Structure formats: structure tokens, C-alpha cells
Amino acid sequence: MTKPYLIADILLRRGLPENVVKEITRLAEKEIIWLKQKWSLDELER
Predict the structure, then answer these.
(1) 26 — alpha (psi -120 to 50), left (phi > 0) or beta?
(2) CA–CA separation, 25 vs 11, rounded Å?
(3) pLDDT at position 19, please?
(4) N or C: at which end does the chain have fewer Cβ atoms within 10 angstroms?
(5) Measuring CA to CA, how many Å separate 3 from each of 43, 44, 46?
């Protein structure tokens, strides 16, 4: 995982709004959605 993805992952999990995370990390909305989908898969495996 590259640095912007790791930062976005941490910030989103801590409850920051998506628009703030996008501004900080410069990730596209589809990348933010991908991170959230990844969480869903991780939770299903537990």
C-alpha cells in the first residue's frame, strides 16, 4: 500500500469526512470507494 492510501485508510477509519481525506491525500473518489470496499472484504474474512 502506498503512502497516500495508507494515510487515507487511517483517516477514514478515524471518522474524517471523505471530502477532507480527498483534499489531504489527493486521491480520487473512486480510490476512496475502493478503500471502503476493501474494509468490507476484510470484515467478512474475520
Answers:
(1) left
(2) 10
(3) 93
(4) C
(5) 22, 25, 25
Do 8 and 21 contact (CB within 8 A), yes or no? yes
Grid coordinates in use for 43? Answer: 470484515
> Cell for 26?
489527493
Cell triple for 2: 502506498
Which residues have a Cβ under 8 Å from the Cβ of 26 and sit 6 or more positions away? 4
pLDDT tens track for 23-39: 999 999 999 999 888 87
| pTM of the predicted model as reported, rounded to 2 decimal places | 0.76
Residue 46 CA neighbour count, 13 Å, CB half: 6
